[in-house]
Sequence to fold (356 residues):
Amino acid sequence: MMYKFPYYVLLCTSLCVACNNPGAKKEAADGRQVTDTNIRTTYQNPVIRIAAPDPTALRLADGTYYLYATEDIRNLPIFKSKNLVDWEEVGTAFTDATRPDFVDNNPEGKKAAIWAPDIQCIKGKYVLTYSLAEWGNHWISTIGYAVSDSPEGPFTPKGKLFNSRDVNVENSIDQFLYEEDGKYYVLWGSFFGIYIMELDIADDMTITPKLETKKQLAGNAYEGINLWKKDGYYYLFGSIGSCCEGEKSTYTTVVARSESLFGPYINKSGEKMLDNAHEIVVHKSNRFVGTGHNALLQTDDEGNTWMLYHAFELENVGAQRQVLLDRILWDKDGWPYIENQQPSDEAAAPVIKSPQ
Fold:
């Protein structure tokens, strides 16, 4: 079972994950040698200094964070951290031998790229969903899933949830699984509407979409969505603009909220996300552009909320989309934002308790 309230922290308590030695030397994701300690007062962005777009993350019961990223590194890279700042690459979700590449109804017979993973802990298993897609060929887009007993894999592909034709939604990618009151849902979509649909998940991890429950939540301006519940509101985060044009990228993270899971999601003025209305969470700065496709919010040990997302660093565009970390603040009316709506260069670090 996943724990969502008050902070929707995902914990798999049935599995044993060994803690790192607090004094051990580790190699960080950018090759630096760092001391693997939970105690930090500040950090600098990016926190992962290699290409790791579309991050998704969860925290285990022992406090370890895991992050998974998209196809710039083959087979979906897996990173591990004790403090949300120092990340160690620990492997990939798939190997060349286990890598899924099925795409139904692909007349060209091309193999699909793997994009936009989402990680969840469901019924004691780690469930990794992902998009199988080909740039510009929207109707072959397919959402698949894989299962593992460990957050570090190996993940075993289980097949597809659905493809664009199955649900009649063009460009069916960027999926996000959500659980509430024992029911499971998938949210998905990329610039052709954001949708929600109930799923049936059996104990053997067979997942069956309930097509009759499909409902549109947001307009055609969005992709890369996820959901966070806080103080009676559902906050639907998404990205607008262009993701992947280097220094010309316009990706921006936005949000709207609703008192119902099924909407309507509205902005501060009461305008609907179905009509492409929203509030900005973070946009470009004079150092970073393309600030989007955020992971589900993470919490530190004082309950502060943090957002992992990707961006291009203008002085290092060749590194592609690196991972940034910033604290999510909440205004007096309960709306989330990053300070100055811009990525930080250096900031106070997440509060992580020393290991017991």
User: Anything to note?
Assistant: The longest strand covers residues 113-122. DSSP finds one helix and 26 strands in the chain. The helical segments are 164-167. Residues 196 and 261 are 9 Å apart (CA to CA).
